[in-house]
Specification:
The protein has 5 helices and 10 strands, in the order ααββββββαββββαα. The chain is α+β, with helices and mostly antiparallel strands. The longest helix is centred in the C-terminal third of the chain and has 18 residues. The radius of gyration is 23 Å and the shape is elongated.
Length: 284
């Protein structure tokens, strides 16, 4: 018993920095109780995780409050042992048994829920030098498994694994608009910064008597036939959830006031076309 307590204490000391208090109403697995995760919720978790697994919880041990800094009121921090059932994504070696920390809400009686045999989805990273140990990428990195959530998750994992998957957008670098020969004709180019440095640009075309059209080019070549990303795709997620609400003034380097206004208006047009980045889980 003393050995097990020492082992848990060592594990807690190693992983304590990865556990953050959950700020939303969650069920016993740490999942939002509202209507389940949105596409953006699942994409954000999957995008941050080295491993996405389906597992079954086999054991749990409560971490003493003094070893659980940052624990939110009404929650318990658990040291969990789970059995791997399926590796949905990731290229790291995964054993049959996993150990990790998770914050879970107390039940209506104020007690720690019994999670044994609960089927969960885990979004996690490996722990160097600790075989079988993983760190959840967020407080919501453990969620109760359902066939519906897994079915929605699998296409996200497939897209993220593609060599040409759209890169993470980190901001807007430059934007300019050029008037055409006809009244009401213009073309706006918006160049984006990405985490990988891969070029990405948005084009907005306006023609007299026609509905404005826009598209995104992921790469060096600006494709005149580019189209908007499909809703609930990684391309959509990269733009809808990363672009700022307004075009940054620093991105507008033209001295032409009309061109600056057009570029800003076209940026808003793109944002409105994308729609909101709906989230139900706490943003991490």
């Amino acid at each position: 018993m003393h050995f097990r307590t020492t082992l848990i204490a060592a594990f807690v000391s190693l992983l304590i920095g990865s556990v953050m208090p959950v700020s939303a109403q969650t069920n016993s697995a740490g999942q939002s109780d509202q209507s389940g995760p949105t596409y953006a919720d699942l994409a954000a978790l999957a995008d941050s995780a080295q491993l996405v697994l389906r597992a079954e919880i086999r054991k749990q041990a409560v971490v003493e409050p003094e070893r659980a800094p940052g624990l939110a009121p009404g929650y318990a921090r658990l040291y969990i042992t789970a059995r791997t059932q399926a590796l949905l994504s990731g290229n790291a070696a995964v054993g049959e048994q996993l150990n990790y920390l998770a914050d879970v809400p107390l039940n209506a009686e104020g007690k720690v829920p019994r999670l044994k045999r609960l089927q969960v989805l885990l979004f996690a990273n490996t722990v160097p030098g600790r075989p079988g140990a993983v760190q959840l990428v967020a407080p919501t990195g453990q969620m109760q498994h359902s066939a519906d959530i897994e079915a929605r998750l699998r296409p996200i994992l497939t897209e993220l694994a593609q060599p040409d998957s759209p890169p993470q957008v980190t901001g807007v670098r430059d934007a300019f608009s050029v008037r055409g020969n006809l009244a009401g004709e213009s073309e706006t180019q918006i160049f984006l910064d990405t985490q990988s440095g891969t070029p990405a640009s948005i084009s907005v075309l306006r023609r007299p008597g026609r509905v404005p059209v826009w598209g995104i080019s992921w790469g060096e070549i600006i494709d005149s036939a580019a189209r908007p990303p499909a809703p609930n795709s990684i391309g959509w997620y990269r733009l809808a959830c990363a672009l700022p609400a307004q075009l940054p003034a620093s991105a507008l380097y033209s001295d032409d006031a009309a061109a600056r206004r057009q570029a800003a208006a076209d940026y808003i047009f793109v944002k409105q076309s994308l729609g909101p980045c709906a989230r139900r889980l706490p943003v991490f």
